[in-house]
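I have been asked to look over a protein record a colleague put together. The record follows directly below this note.
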Amino acid sequence: MKEVTLKQIAENLGISITTVSKALKNYPDVSKKTKALVKEEAKKLHYKPNVFAVNLRTKQSKTVGLIIPEVVHHFFSSVVNGIIEHAEKKGYLVIILQSNESYKLEQKQIDLLISKRVDGIMISLASNSTDISHLQEVRDLNIPMVMFDKISKLIDCSKIIINDRKAAYVATKHLIDSGCKRIAHFRGALLPQNSIDRFLGYKKALEDHGIQYDPSLVYICERVDYKDGIEAAKKLMSEHDDIDGLFCITDLVAIGAISVFNDNGIKVPDDISIMGFSNWFISSAITPSLSTIDQPGYKMGKATFKTLLKEMKAKRKELPFKPITKVLETKLVVRNSTK
């Protein structure tokens, strides 16, 4: 089917192209009758504005890119909801891409978004993102970018985060306050900043409360998923029989560990108390329900898009923009997996 143009609508109605354009944009100097006729004719002909022409004229695509490690995770789905809801209010389309925690895929996705001429990019890094040259390219091209949750301190851009170190400290302190003396930690990979900070928060809480840090009690979960929790819990049982507390980097890892302990007759929290992180919806539905740190995913998504919008507006007006770092509050949620 041939593309319908403003000229065709104008010829059908016997009016100028300018009048048609103004009528479709609801200009006040066009009569209501003319507007109604133009809109009816446009609908009949299935007219769609030429997006590429609009983009060239306004110097914006009204699209933004979002890269997240995984869509199925409750926390990231909450972030996505926060971003989409507020992006739609401002007339932006969000292109959502999933890196699957793959650095190489993340690189390709950044290249794709750059080629699509998106107005801005929001990203939570893959766990194994070591080389950040693809992110520096975004900044070098002057494309607005906001990192959230999993970030790199080496990139000068806006960041929306929580205080992971403080939150992990609170989680570990809760275990100590409930009587735990030998506390293990299932952490994430070595590089992501949130994995580093949660580990450091755990370690500092031990030191501040007179408990000697034992590196053999720290287990790395590369994928940070349910299977990781299962595998790490099995190793923990075979290597240590005196553990009475466990702090996990995410709820999903903690739930995997609980399933192993339940299957092996280890009672939670009588024999071992367990803390998760993020407050996934299933955390309150499992047995026993999981004590955790509530991480505000929806608020993070909202703040991420709003911050990106500020930078995009500044760029459009050719104004300087200083990157913003916003730290959102977390809270301890005590349930039945801790004493």
About this structure: The CA atoms of residues 179 and 269 lie 11 Å apart. The longest strand covers residues 63-68. Residues 164-294 form a domain with the Rossmann fold fold (CATH 3.40.50.2300).
